Amino acid sequence: MKKRSIVLIDFSENSTELIKYVADWAVQTDMEILLLHQTIVVAPALTDVDNKREITQHTNAEARKKLSRLARAHLPDQTKVTYSVSDEPLTRTLERLLEQPFDDLVFVGMKGTSLVKQLVMGSVALDVINNTGNCIVAVPKGLITFTQSTLHVSVTEKYPLNILALNNYLNFLGDREVRIVFFYLAAPNESTAGIERQLRELSDLFAYRLKTDFAIFEGSDTFQDIKKVVIDRADEVLIVQRGSRLLTDQIFRKFLINELVYEGHIPLVVLP
Questions:
Q1: Burial class (CB in 10 A: 0-12, 13-18, 19+), 45
Q2: Least confident interval from 22-26, 139-143, 166-170, 241-245
Q3: Residue 254 in this model has a pLDDT that exceeds 50
Q4: Helical H runs in 75-162?
Q5: pLDDT score, position 79
Q6: DSSP string of 211-238?
Q7: How far apart are CA 51 and CA 43, in angstroms?
Q8: What tens digit of pLDDT does each residue of 122-174 get?
Q9: Distance from first CA to last CA of the chain, Å, rounded?
Q10: Domain around 129
Q11: 97 and 134: one domain?
């Protein structure tokens, strides 16, 4: 099945960087690109149905022109690109697009490096992650080159890793040599014999197609230990399972999502 990237574009300054990142990925792996924008239709409260429809059509047409200009400015000529513009809720549009015969990755941009700005991850990105049954790639601000050599995959006992989705993500990486590290965050004094066995089994399972390893981070310096592993390396990726403690626990999300992804400028991949 043909591979496609669905890229959420809001026409902010980050949109250009996001398109460049996806374009570089697409060139290296023969991936099609679909640029998706949700319009906000502004019309007077007493506007009748016909005029509201005309305003909506005009708004969507102008947004499509802007998408086309972005594509011409930043995508290589040989890139196969399509557009989707709608005033429907974003998750509804995505649901319809994901029913089409493609293997899709959904790309969202993350803004800022502080908890005050929180990402689009407090609004658009988390909404997409929580309501879209597809693999999501959240790309930090400033990243424009596709270089993935090490994947750090968070493993939990409560939410089993989606092996099928992880395999599908690996298929999007093309023929590049990649190392994958399965890791677990242990609480102080937690028994880790069971999770260590699970990590070892996962490492063995994927060893046929790439270099694998596993690690357990435990104790009071957990966050500092993880930061030493992944922060400030542009070719690193953090992969988590939807529903994972890393996304739902406020403390873990604060340290791992904000510090590792924002400060470290590494992509966050969320498996369905």
A1: exposed
A2: 241-245
A3: no
A4: 90-97, 124-131
A5: 87
A6: EEEEEEEESTTHHHHHHHHHTT-TTEEE
A7: 9
A8: 467 777 877 888 999 988 888 898 888 899 998 887 778 899 999 999 999 98
A9: 19
A10: 1-141
A11: yes
Whose CA is closest to 41, among 52, 50, 31, 32?
52
Residue 234 has pLDDT above 90, yes or no: no
- CA-based torsion, 244, 249, 252, 256: positive or negative: positive
CATH number at residue 219: 3.40.50.620
Domain boundary among 141, 174, 198: 141
Tell me which residue of 34, 29, 38 sits closest to 19, measured CA to CA: 34
- Mean pLDDT over 103-113 rounds to 81
Contact between 160 and 42 (Cβ < 8 Å): no
| Strands of the sheet with 3-8, listed across from one edge | 81-86, 32-38, 3-8, 103-109, 136-139, 268-271, 236-241, 150-154, 179-186, 211-218
Alpha-helical segments (H) within 75-123: 90-97
